[in-house]
Amino acid sequence: MKPFSIAIHGGAGTILKEDMTIELEKAYINGLETAIDKGYHVLEQGGTSVDAVRAAIVSLEDNLLFNAGRGSVFTKKGVQEMDAAIMNGANLEAGAVSGVRNVRNPIELAFEVMAHSNHVFLSGKGANDFAIKQGLKLEPDEFFFSKFRYDQWKEIRDSDSYSLDHTHQDLAELMKDKKFGTVGAVACDSFGNIAAATSTGGMTNKKYGRIGDSPIIGAGTYANNKTCGISCTGHGEPFIRAVAAHDVNALMEYKGCTLQEAMDEVVHHKLIALEGEGGMIGIDANGNTAMVFNSAGMYRAMKNSKGERKVAIYKD
Ligand code: ASP
Question: Is residue 212 within 6 Å of ligand 1 at its C-beta?
Answer without folding.
Answer: yes
